[in-house]
Amino acid sequence: MIIHHLQEGNSILNKFIAEIRDVNIQKDSLRFRRNIERIGEVLGYELSKNLSYKNVSIETPLGEKTEQLFDNDVVLCSILRAGLPLHQGVLNYFDDAENAFISAYRHHPNNDAKSEIVVEYFAAPSIENKTLLLLDPMLATGQSLVSVYEAIKKQGTPAEIHILVVIASKEGIEFIKDKFPENTHLWIAAIDVELNSKGYIVPGLGDAGDLAFGTKL
User: Fold this and answer.
1) pTM for the predicted model, two decimal places
2) Distance (Å, rounded) from C-alpha 138 to C-alpha 142?
3) How many whole angstroms from its chain centre is CA 35?
């Protein structure tokens, strides 16, 4: 797996990350969603440098100009519901992409720390020989991401895979490394050190889905 950690270098991305972590700023759900969306735009821009490009002749009002445009058939796949703002951010840049949506959540059958991943809603196009972008704002344990990948593999074998994450734990990164093809690219805005007993990233930001859309029962 090829890992790209964007916060290894300083940029405007730092401001967006700081604001989604800040307990006072994140109370504004509209601003929280917009910051996740903007992080998606940054991640999408960075990964676009790794796509395949071809020369395309463009007719202008005064002549012609050859531009290099990417030649990938892109499919965006996000995990509901927390992944929706991130999905929109990437879609802002890949507006011709096909889209897939899969629900995955932690189920605690014994009401303790042990959980299993339940995948329910599934809507996806073929991903055969396409460029698959898997979007998950929080890579905590990594189990949800792997479960979603196992589900969408039924739609074909992609030519390449890019995983886009806002915040990842070191444990989650280690967990998924051998669960994806070796040439998979993992794009991460920020990496945190640990998980707590409930599987949340520390210091993290809390529950991304609740912060974006309200507390669930």
Assistant:
1) 0.91
2) 9
3) 14
- Count CB-CB contacts under 10 A for residue 215: 8
Q: What is the mean pLDDT of residues 164-179?
A: 96
Residue 145 and residue 79 in contact, taking contact as beta carbons nearer than 8 Å: yes
Rg of the chain (C-alpha set): 18
Length of the chain: 217
Report the distance separating Cα 84 and Cα 53, nearest Å.
28
Q: Which phi and psi angles does 49 have, rounded to 5°?
A: -70, -15
Provide the percentage of residues in the chain whose pLDDT is more than 90.
Answer: 84
Neighbouring CB atoms inside 10 A of 7's CB total: 14
pLDDT tens, 100-140? 999 877 665 665 556 667 778 889 999 999 999 999 999 99
Three-state secondary structure call for residue 138: strand
